[in-house]
Amino acid sequence: MRRICASLPGSTEKLSHGEPTFFVAKKVFCMFADDHHHDGHLAVWLPAPIGIQEMVIAASPEKKDRELDFLIRQAWRMIAPKKLQAALRSPGSGLDQKKTAKAQSAPRRRKN
Question: Which residues, 6 or more positions from 15, have their beta carbon under 8 angstroms from its beta carbon?
Answer without folding.
Answer: 21
